[in-house]
Amino acid sequence: MTNTLDDKAIVKDYFNATGFDRWRRIYGDGEVNKVQKDIRIGHQQTIDTVIGWLESDDNLPNLSICDAGCGVGSLSIPLAKAGATIFASDISEKMVTEAKERAAKELADTGKLTFAVQDLEALTGQYHTVICLDVLIHYPTEEALGMIKHLGSLAQSRLILSFAPKTCLLTILKKIGQFFPGPSKTTRAYQHKEKTIIAALNENGFKIERTSMTSTRFYFSRILEAVRSE
Ligand code: SAM
């Protein structure tokens, strides 16, 4: 039995406190420990893969993109730089504030990039592409499936997701244990079966177009690009 509201409250508190400091450092370029450096490299590979897919389509300036759970803007900022219109949101106010500051430093014109503090299941509107990277790891599969359904309803053409695949369960639990030593720093991490995620995407009218897997020593992320099949 899961309680989405509790899970969201826990995740939100974490990313407004200890999690904010930790992930802001990982998603930055300052000094970090070896494990954090490995996760930084892995995460950047995930970001680069998605940007590579979008750039290869050669239509970024025509796209409206929703970046759900945008963190510090690691994806939104380069996509805005490449000319896409981005709506970026996150449940953590601290993450959004940091993302706004980074965007102001990195972009000559922030006009195509809008930020909001919002739970992704409260998002409305229609976007050509909806992207949700490394967010589903924070929720049990049942809740992740509800999120996929909602994100799918916002996507006119395409939904891009990343998640920790279930096959890496033991490895990832071990690594996350090393990464979050001590209960005060811990947030829960959930892996999802790829089969289950793909079935949910199919049920919501999407078929898989491109896939990728990022694996480093401490970071595992399966990336799926799903496009509308009807
Ligand atoms: N997607 C970003 C990236 O790849 O750089 C950030 C990934 S970070 C591991 C997870 C982010 O998801 C955090 O910023 C967290 O606040 C956000 N998040 C978690 N649950 C969320 C929800 N229900 N709605 C919106 N954002 C959420």
UniProtKB/TrEMBL annotation:
GO biological process, one term: methylation
A UniProt-annotated Pfam family: Mg-por_mtran_C
Catalytic EC class: transferase
Enzyme Commission designation: 2.1.1.11
One GO MF term: magnesium protoporphyrin IX methyltransferase activity
CDD domains, sorted: AdoMet_MTases (cd02440)
Gene3D superfamilies xrefs: Vaccinia Virus protein VP39
Keywords assigned by UniProt, alphabetized: Methyltransferase, Transferase
Keyword Transferase: yes
Superkingdom in the source lineage: Bacteria
PROSITE patterns on file: SAM_MT_MG_PIX (PS51556)
Boundaries of every Magnesium-protoporphyrin IX methyltransferase C-terminal domain copy: 132-228
NCBIfam families on file: BchM-ChlM
Name of the protein: Magnesium protoporphyrin IX methyltransferase
Native source organism of the sequence: Microcystis aeruginosa Sj
